[in-house]
């Protein structure tokens, strides 16, 4: 699977987000030993870049797409307890982009 080019995740519930991305992509999270809550993210080996996760501050006004460069990754996101938003697009170069959001009661 292709690795991300760059990202940082702002999560309302960091532990829940970590569990989600570990299950979906097998990413490795390491707590940062700095003055604020932050986790570094190892997305894989080879070319690409890793990322970070931190607690969200403020209100979210948009939904970020999940880019699924291989078949089945978007379905995997839905299987982990998220639901697809109506907007979805496909690109031969980038794969399928499907907006997802948490299924919360």
Description:
The protein has 2 helices and 7 strands, in the order βαββββαββ. Helix content is 18%, strand content 37%. The strands form 2 sheets. It has a 4-stranded mixed beta sheet with strand order 1-4-3-2, with helices on one face. The protein has a 3-stranded antiparallel beta sheet with strand order 5-7-6. With 105 residues, it is of the alpha+beta class.
Percentage beta strand: 35-45%
Largest pleated sheet: 4 strands, mixed
Low-confidence stretches: none
Which oligomerization state do the chains in this entry correspond to?
A: single chain
Secondary structure tally, helices: 2
Q: Trace the largest sheet across and list its strands.
A: 1-4-3-2
Output the helix-strand order.
Answer: EHEEEEHEE
| Strand elements, count | 7
Mean pLDDT figure:
73
User: In angstroms, what is the radius of gyration?
Assistant: 14 Å
Distance between the termini: 33 Å
Shape: globular
Structural class: alpha+beta
Helix fraction by DSSP (H/I, runs of at least 4)? 10-25%
Question: What's the topology here?
Answer:
Elements: E1 8-11, H1 14-25, E2 28-31, E3 39-42, E4 51-55, E5 65-68, H2 73-79, E6 82-91, E7 95-102
Parallel strand pairs: 1-4
Antiparallel strand pairs: 2-3, 3-4, 5-7, 6-7
List keywords for this structure.
37% strand; alpha+beta; single chain
């Amino acid at each position: 699977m292709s690795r991300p080019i760059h990202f940082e995740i702002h999560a309302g519930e960091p532990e829940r987000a970590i569990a989600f991305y570990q299950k979906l992509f097998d990413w490795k999270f390491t707590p940062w030993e700095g003055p604020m809550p932050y986790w570094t993210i190892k997305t894989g080996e080879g070319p690409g870049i890793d990322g970070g996760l931190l607690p969200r501050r403020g209100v979210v006004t948009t939904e970020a797409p999940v880019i699924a460069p291989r078949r089945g990754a978007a379905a995997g996101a839905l299987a982990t307890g998220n639901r697809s938003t109506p907007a979805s697009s496909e690109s031969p170069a980038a794969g399928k982009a499907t907006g997802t959001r948490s299924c919360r009661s």
